[in-house]
Amino acid sequence: MPYTIESLIAMLPGAFKASKVKVADTAIQLEVTGSQAGKWNVVVKDGNLNVVKGTHADPELTITADTADILDVAEGKLDPTKAFMLGKVKVKGDLTEATKLVQLFTPK
Q1: Which region holds residue 100: left if phi is over 0, alpha if psi is between -120 and 50, else beta?
Q2: Whole-model pTM?
Q3: In this structure, which of 7, 35, 52, 78 has its CB flanked by the most CB atoms within 10 Å?
């Protein structure tokens, strides 16, 4: 079954590895452009992750990417680091924090 942006967003809490939380509480704004455009905010607080559709008032990070690129990353067709290096994913805020947050969703 192919992914959709909504299905990927719904998977975030289940993919979150609370045991890896060494990152301070943070708020992330996800801005998806393209065919499945939308805005979601992700809040990591006290070892929990909460995702809400809409805009966060004061995010520490804002991540913007096109629908097609997000789906390609999810399907393994595009490496996330390469997507960033090619400018397909834009991050506004502390890049070190963004790197740490990616690790919270990766298996190990």
Answers
A1: alpha
A2: 0.83
A3: 78
